Amino acid sequence: MLADDWWRHAVIYQVYPRSFADSDGDGMGDLPGVISRLPYLADLGVDALWLNPFYASPQNDAGYDVADYRRVDDLFGTVADAEKLIEAAHALGLRVIFDIVPNHTSSAHAWFVEALATPPGTGIWSRYHCVRGRGADGQEPPNDWLSVFGGLAWTQIPDPASGDPSGWWYLHLFDTTQPDLNWNDPEVWAEHERVLRFWFDRGVDGFRIDVAHGLVKTEDYPMSGEQPGMYSLELDTPVLPQWDQPGVHEVYRAWRGIANSYDPPRAFCGEVVVPTPESHAMYLRTDELHTAFNFHYLRTRWDAAHLREVIDHSLATAGSIGAPCTWVLSNHDVRRHVTRLAPVESDGSVDLERGLARARAASMVMLALPGSAYLYQGEELGLPEVIDLPAEARQDPTFLRTAGEVIGRDGCRVPIPWEGTTPSFGFGPGEESWLPQPDFFAELSVAAQTGVADSTLEMYRSALRIRKDQPGLGDGELEWLDSPPDVVAFARGSITVVANMGDRPITWPATELLLASSPAVTFANGSVAVEPETAVWISGRR
Ligand code: NOJ
pTM of the entire structure? Predict the structure, then answer.
């Protein structure tokens, strides 16, 4: 049995349902596919899985445009499949987290469809941000807010009688088909409580909260002065009136009460994108969210000083209110970290061999940090970003809304390879996959790496096994050790972690080499030789 505070130190595997396992051969992953692969996850050694949305949806944003929060989309299965998944995961000792999308619905949601049939600015339009445009006839948008996916965040509402553009606009911080909900409306609160309870009653252990920092907007919709690209995951970007507003914390206080009313209590992980670790920590107060993704860590460069600073700052701010840190290097929205951390050559190409070496080292550092860690499906195989998807295959609204100027996130969403030498590499029973898979997936499949001593998959398996055997590794204190400036070194109980981020080999005293990110590491005469772009877990202290 896992303890009620499992979320403090769990390793959680992100399943992107579209791309994990396809049971029926339509090229789209589904819930029965996930169920069939649960033993793999248990064997890998993770504690829990998080599934991206699989609810009824037109799929304009890969399911983050939800039309019905209590139905499973036909693409993925049924509510009964979701229940089976929870039961089967629990039987294997795995916790299950679903994804809730409270910032916006799909424009195909019954509420929005109903609103469109009524005069804008009246009655049930209060569930959305329906705002009068500027200018005498309201033909100019209410303000300058931008959609994260490109273009303006406002779309003009048609007059229900004539179909002509009215002087009213609705807000969509993402795609036009994702109207933002208005959290000043009590019905929006009540509906989300019902949705949370619907899935909690079915045994789900928690929710990842989409755009958790976005629910409440500044009243009166002031101009933001925003420039394209200003909303980012970088530190110290300005706070804009549509994000991270104080009122959002009330929502999570109410949700925490709901989660706590269950036995065992349910848990939340917020997708909180805010400018500083201090504002991030506000979401983690004891009566709000249990955890929240630490995107400051995801954004660290391959640079020892930068990494130390972000780790230190994150631990200090979360620690100051007794909250755990949540570490993550890859997810379905960012370039896979093999590619992101790879050195860029003078001709603009990336050195993926060194990228993989760095990614393996970075993952070993992450898995030794105190707190919980999220792994994104396929990172345990060392998959790089698929950068050369043809334009006609791309489906990300970011690509479509910017006419291809922003390449978008499809490259990290390609269905993962399980076995075999030709597509779909065991993803489904046939060749189909909703995004095309590259030939090099053959060498990186689960089957190709299983039992191969130095493979990335076996490195993750070993790391997770050691982490389980050493309960202190996911919890407890981190003590920095003296090291050359381009080396990250810290002690975690009896284990020492050393990552060489410089360009010269180093040696480090050890009584035992527990795990290395590279086969080039040697251990002899009481010390390990650590090549550049390599991390080790050793026992013994300097
Ligand atoms: C964050 C999700 O992770 C992303 O995939 C989605 O496009 C946006 N939120 C909008 O829901």
Answer: 0.97
